[in-house]
Amino acid sequence: MWLQHPLGGFASIVYKDRAGKPSKAGPKAIISVRFRRPKDAAVMFPDLPYVATPHGDYAGRVFASREQVAWAVAKMILDGEYTNVKGAIPLNDNPLHDAMHDAWTVFGRLQEGGPYGHGRFLDRDIYGRPQKKAVGGVHVKHLGGKNADDHDWRFADDHWTPPASLGPVATETSDPAPCALCGEVRDLTEDELCNACAEALSRPGV
Asked: Would the pTM count as exceeding 0.90?
């Protein structure tokens, strides 16, 4: 199991004991939690010893019972208050911010169209429902702003090629296309509906 936490960095949980053998069953059985940085181990397990393994695949490990690991993870969830994971990373921890952003980008490839549908539906909310106000551009390099909830859109341009099944994807240089239903020219991609038509079609009985 991999865990990413804005204060505790990255942890990898594997079911091996101190000797590297498969862990036994039961809440008291010892398992291994591996870390890239000692300070991340201290966040998750402040009272347990950190074992440095500089020649291993991870910089260090904490050996804890299954029960201790479960409580440590539960405490992270019970104490959590952030609404944006990357935005909760301390400002002075640039290496963690960059690593977690890269992980977000790479794992976004598992999602068809990438996060936010590759910017194609910025006039919709995350559930695909039309929004009253469309975001100005489509997949741009960066939407700007300094708030934690602002998103870096480098993913759309640098790391993702949308599947052909998504159809044409709008860009900053696309010519405005007419609504596929009413024909009124809007800032749309080809075969897309304007907000008014999309809302009308979403009403019950239509």
From this structure: no
Q: pLDDT, tens digit, for every residue of 39-75?
A: 999 999 999 999 999 899 999 999 999 999 999 999 9
Evaluate whether 107 touches 86 at the Cβ level (below 8 Å). no
Closest alpha carbon to 36 in 44, 28, 47, 25:
44
Task: Output the six-digit token pair for 143.
Answer: 């939407």
> CA–CA separation, 183 vs 190, rounded Å?
11
Q: Please classify residue 200 by burial: count the beta carbons closer than 10 Å to its beta carbon, then call 0-12 exposed, 13-18 middle and 19+ buried.
A: middle
Beta strands in 138-199 (DSSP E): 177-178, 185-186
Q: How far apart are CA 44 and CA 173, in angstroms?
A: 47
